[in-house]
Each structure stands twice: as C-alpha cells, then as structure tokens.
Amino acid sequence: MTIDVDEQIYMPSEVVLAFFRIFQEGVSNAVHHGRATQVKGEVSQLDDTTVMFEIQDNGKGFEPNKSYEELRLNGHRGLANIMERITTLRGEFEVESVPGKGTLLRCLVPIVQDNDEN
C-alpha cells in the first residue's frame, strides 16, 4: 500500500477526517471485496478551490452500474457511506471499475467549507 500526499495542501479538519474515513473504507473494500494485493492512495490539490483524493487498487473490480441506495439495501454500505461523506462536504464522487481490472475511487472536494472562519 502506498499513500502520496501533497504536503502543501491546507484542508479544513472536517475534510481531513472525511478523507481518512474514506481511505479506511476504500482500503477495506479493496482488500475484502476486491481481493486487491496493491492499493494506492493519493491526495493532490487540483486548483485553488479543489482537492482530489483517489484510491486505486488491482483487485477483481466490479460493474459500478448499481445505485448506491441499491448497494446499501443489499448490505454493501461502503460505497454508500463514502458517497454520503462526500455529499456532506459538497464534493463529487466517481467510481471507475471493470471486472478483472481493479477499481479507482475519485473524490473531488472544495477546500473552503461553509463553516470555515476565514
């Protein structure tokens, strides 16, 4: 497992905590469901307003065509939980996966949150 973080990024504490929880969930999903042997996490600043967080694995992949609510109802809460965290931060969430090819989770989150004091 590797993690690359741009040390120059300032993120509010709620974003840092959300990314930490998302990383936990993503790694857990990759290992337990995807049978991944390699997982890479990356945090980078795209521009003055957006941070990108990615988790990529070499697991078995899946077809990401089900809704998150459908996954939740079938007992697969991981992706639904990630989506909820990103939505709370006014961010965007994408999943790229192909059976047999691994999975990429991408989260885009605004750096400035509503409750920032600046």
Automatic annotation (TrEMBL):
Q: What is its EC number?
A: 2.7.13.3
Protein's organism: bioreactor metagenome
What GO MF annotations does this protein's record show? Answer: protein histidine kinase activity
Q: Which UniProt keywords apply?
A: Kinase, Transferase
**The reaction(s) this protein catalyses:** ATP + protein L-histidine = ADP + protein N-phospho-L-histidine
Keyword Glycoprotein among UniProt keywords: no
* Name this protein carries in UniProt: histidine kinase
CDD domains reported for this sequence: HATPase_UhpB-NarQ-NarX-like (cd16917)
Write out the GO biological process terms.
phosphorelay signal transduction system
InterPro entries in UniProt: HATPase_C_sf, HATPase_dom, Sensor_HK_TwoCompSys
Report any Pfam family annotated for this entry: HATPase_c
Question: What are the residue boundaries of the Histidine kinase/HSP90-like ATPase domain, all occurrences included?
Answer: 18-111
